[in-house]
Design a protein that fits this description.
The protein has a single domain, classed as Sandwich (Jelly Rolls). The strands form two sheets. Strands 1, 2, 3, 5, 6, 8, 13, 14, 15 and 17 form a ten-stranded antiparallel beta sheet that branches. Strands 4-7-16-9-10-11-12 form a seven-stranded antiparallel beta sheet. The chain is mainly beta. The chain contains three helices and 17 strands.
Length: 218
């Protein structure tokens, strides 16, 4: 199994078939435009947070935004990362996109942190969501397949802090785990016809978000 570990200190590639490690520091990682492409968002690289954490922050603007990593083709495997949104109703949509064809065509899993602890069971049931753009938006899926492509999260993280997400892609299924849970928060059959593509971070309309410790296994 090949493993790609991306932190915002740099990039570490390791594989059982290679006896080598490649590493680049934060400055070259941030400035090398060949590694990432950003659409409808600016990215701020945070070199130190609480003295030890390296992360990236995607800013806020109208419409969705995405940061696409250019050096990886992903099909089946596991995506793990730490994500931070906000407990700000209707203004915090944060997640990971995969099988990216371009900035408008991809599968994604995203979270609504402002619903994590909502006492309204309908709203808390909309905490984690699968989408497949451009056809299967959250609005279309909720309208055509109510309660099938979104769920509450378990355990329930602090909506204003980093939480750990694990996304397991085994075509045609995608399964989502939160924190160290053994039981998934969401498991659905994907709606897209495309089965592989790039990986990236995604934020929704009017949202910012912070991401760190991305690990891709395939």
């Amino acid at each position: 199994m090949k493993t790609l570990l991306i932190t915002f200190l740099g990039i570490l590639f390791s594989a059982s078939v290679f006896a080598q490690t490649k590493y680049s520091d934060l400055i070259s990682f941030a400035e090398d435009k060949s590694k990432w492409e950003y659409y409808n968002r600016d990215a701020a690289f945070i070199s130190k947070e609480q003295g030890k954490i390296y992360s990236v922050m995607l800013g806020t603007t109208e419409g969705d935004g995405i940061a696409i990593y250019q050096d990886l083709e992903f099909e089946n495997g596991t995506l793990e990362m730490d994500i931070k949104g906000k407990n700000n109703p209707g203004k915090s949509f944060v997640g990971v996109a995969f099988h990216i064809q371009d900035e408008e065509t991809f599968n994604a899993i995203y979270f609504r942190p402002f619903n994590f602890k909502n006492p309204d069971k309908v709203r808390s049931g909309h905490s984690v969501q699968y989408i497949s753009h451009p056809e299967f938006t959250w609005h279309k899926l909720r309208g055509d397949f109510p309660e099938q492509f979104e769920n509450p999260v378990k355990p329930v993280p602090n909506p204003d802090e980093y939480f750990h997400a694990k996304v397991v892609v085994e075509w045609p299924m995608v399964t989502v785990f939160v924190e160290d849970a053994k039981e998934p928060s969401l498991q659905v059959k994907m709606k897209s016809e495309f089965k592989k593509g790039k990986v990236g971070f995604w934020v929704g309309h009017g949202s910012d978000g912070a991401f760190k410790n991305l690990v891709v296994k395939q």
